[in-house]
UniProtKB/TrEMBL annotation:
It comes from Peptoanaerobacter stomatis. It catalyses: GDP-alpha-D-mannose = GDP-4-dehydro-alpha-D-rhamnose + H2O. Keywords: Lyase. Residues 6-319 form the NAD(P)-binding domain. GO terms for molecular function: GDP-mannose 4,6-dehydratase activity. Gene3D superfamilies: NAD(P)-binding Rossmann-like Domain (3.40.50.720), UDP-galactose 4-epimerase, domain 1 (3.90.25.10). This is NAD(P)-binding domain-containing protein. InterPro entries: NAD(P)-bd_dom (IPR016040), NAD(P)-bd_dom_sf (IPR036291). Its cofactor is NADP(+). It comes from the Bacteria.
Amino acid sequence: MKKRALITGITGMVGSHLCDFLLENTDWDIYGFSRWRSPFDNIEHLLKRVNEKDRVFIEYADLNDMASIITILKKVNPDYIFHLAAQSYPKTSFDSPIDTMNTNILGTARLLESVKLLGLKPVVHVCASSEVFGRVSREKLPINEECTFHPASPYAISKVGTDLVGRYYAQAYGITTMTTRMFTHTGPRRGDVFAESTFAKQIAMIEAGLIPPIVKTGNLDSLRTWADVRDAVRAYYMLVTINPIAGEYYNIGGSYTCSVRDMLDTLLKMSTYEGKIEVQTDKERLRPIDADLQVPDTTKFKNHTGWEPEISFEKTMEDLLNYWREKIKKGHNFLTR
């Protein structure tokens, strides 16, 4: 019998790329857990398969509605759960802290409590975030799994809860849950509220003559280690298939480190407007507090799975910029955020 994977948040950047990876590299059936109002832009290329019931199925539910979660879990009885759904925008969390914590902490608890109540035995990946480490002093770099949590946003606080809830259900009830703290990962389909994606979108809009040659930015001094989303989803697959250990937790991230300013310079050099674009700080894009040093020690995960990042930083940035160029060519209107 075919194995079944359930991806919460399948319509997001990571969920859609994970679905692509699983379709290409396994024979599993893939069930996407989606809110009824979620846009399908990121899985548009999969909708023919959904319509034909060809290994991809969309099931409607909400992390804030436990009844809907139980209904889906009963129907699917998954072998693997990739729990990616979340309120995932750190800056938004300052304006919507209660919704962020309800969705991310209690939503994770509702999902795992449902698994427990139904007596299911899936391998569960709980996606936390490197943001749990928050503001880290330089002497603690690179950040390993035992670094103290110092979250710097309501989103980060919610991901501390997500992380701990995931580990609790392993320790208390024997559910095979594992938690990841993925550091900065990006690529095609990245939401335009994240720095590298809004920069790429603005550059593409400038090239198309839609806005003046000015890129608006937030904090450019933060240090980040960058990974490609396609490397990230391969890591998630290896996590659940290579000797999964209940209750374990791993830092995962890329191998290329630079400041947000250097990342922007890389995108600007790829532009047809190179040398003609002004960079301006926009106060509305600044967070009240920022996690400014995000450099991981990924030794534990690499030793356990053998995973290594394969896609270069330059390739990731090029693909992200081309993604926005293609979207803008289609003639849609966009917010200049």
